Amino acid sequence: MKKHFLLVSAALIMTVTSCSNQKEGSAPKVRTEIYTDAPDTSKATAEESNENVILTYAVVGQIEPDEYELIKKFNDADNGYVIETRDYSEIAGADENGNIEYDPEKSNNLDIILLQDIASGKIDIVRDYYLGGATLDRLMARGSFIDLYDLMDTDHEVNSFTLNSHILELHEINGKLYTLPTYFSVKTLIGKTRYVGEKEGWTLDEFISHWEQMPEGSTIQGSTEKDIVYQAILNGMIGSFIDYKNAKVYFDSPEFKKALEFCNTFDNISLVYSEPDMEALSFVDEKHFYGFSNTHLTLWNKEGEPYTFVGYPSSDGCGGFIETLGNRFAISASASETERLGAWEFIRTHCLEEYQTEHYAKKDKVMIDGEIKDVYQESVGFPMNLKAYDHISKDSMTGKYMEDTITMSGKEVEVGQLTQEELDRLTSYINGIQNLSVAVDHNLNEIIRDEVYSYFNDELSVQECIDLIQNRAAIMVAEKQ
User: Fold this and answer.
1) For labelling, which of 25, 218, 333, 377 has a CA lying 20 to 30 Å from the CA of 477?
2) Which residues contact 234 (CB under 8 A, 6 or more apart)?
């Protein structure tokens, strides 16, 4: 990521790096400042002089191009508000090129400064795309954001009737909505139905029972090594053992212990990396569904065999996870009533039917058979807007986003398009998922992995491993509050 430059005057208009090829006269009105300790007087000055109300937006690094254009459009609309981004790259530890390597101390310092700035009214809008999901979760747990339902109740275009209400409910805390998800994806385990049956959602006992019935030579994610099995089954569930709101962790639960012991029954960790054996019979595979064409390709196979959404094993057969990380917005609780209305006017745009349809998938120029063509690239996720979800899925069935024939292993293969049956099944599965993927701090993930691998390498007993993870994770989560 590249840093933005400090504006020395409120009247100065800058061109960010992503649009540096524009002419000076067409520079968009996206104002950015680097974090400093100087008093912030911009809002008071604007309100006292009856000028545009400045809405500060916390970012780290370069604004993504689509949002850059949206901010420009918002600022050019002359609606009484101006978005001004506040770049925390230096606090996050960016080098001279704007690149940021994770540093626990700097990450914690960034959280502290963000909390102070939000509490003092310096920040109005935040998005976890820039700040990170774990940071947003901690800020939310501290009461830093407003209930967005209060604004949605009077909005006839963006509300719980026009958006996926189930996904909204998963984000609620005591009936309040502190973050607005704009796109979402699904993470789950799938397996061929003839081996795993038709039941969706397994307990760990059911998972183990089905595995024991698999033919000799079967794999999980193309491997039978402990670390690969751990990554496929347990690593994706780590967030479910962390409660940031109440600063608690539950790695001492029987469920976590049993899952660890199951992973430890597989082959020892290889000292030399080996490619997964994708030709071997696979029991289950971890899959990430983030678009309609992607869903079709994931479920397609030349034999036409059906798959079952097994889900991650748990005590209640929880199934899959909805993931919205990077696509959540929030409004500061310290913002004035006027600033809240302006901030909502900006973030709601991300959930409008027209915007979600246009930004669902980007086009890029690709050379095909000697000819340059505009081709849709990977989608950003399933849209929250119900109308956008409906007609994008229909467009996917007619081949708008993908050709019927794709290249696989150097050969042209006819794969077709999303079917109504696949869409109905996907939609039903999405609306049945009861778990929200939780962001996990990088250093906490490292701690868990290191202790787990020590157990796998017989350096710790399972109870010693659990005790260490529980104690270290509890301290870390408590310190972050």
Assistant:
1) 333
2) 256, 259, 260, 263
- Rounded distance, CA 47 to CA 40, Å? 13
Domain boundaries, the chain: 17-183+332-355
* Integer CA distances (angstroms), 20 to 3, 69, 99, 306, 362, in order: 13, 13, 19, 49, 20
**Residue 236 reports pLDDT greater than 80:** no
DSSP helix/strand/coil, 67: helix
**Rounded CA gap, 8 and 414, in Å?**
57
CB atoms within 10 A of CB 86: 23
User: Which of the two residues, 41 and 11, has the higher pLDDT score?
Assistant: 41
- Residue 337, amino acid: E
- 335 close to 212: Cβ distance less than 8 angstroms: no
β-strand pairing of 183-192 with 285-289: antiparallel
Look at the domain 17-183+332-355 and name its fold.
D-Maltodextrin-Binding Protein; domain 2 (3.40.190)
Residue 91 CA to residue 57 CA, distance in Å, equals 16
pLDDT on residue 318: 67
According to DSSP, residue 163 is labeled B
**Angle 190-193-198 from CA coordinates, rounded to 5°:** 90
| Number of residues that make up the chain | 481
138: pLDDT confidence band, cut at 50, 70 and 90? confident
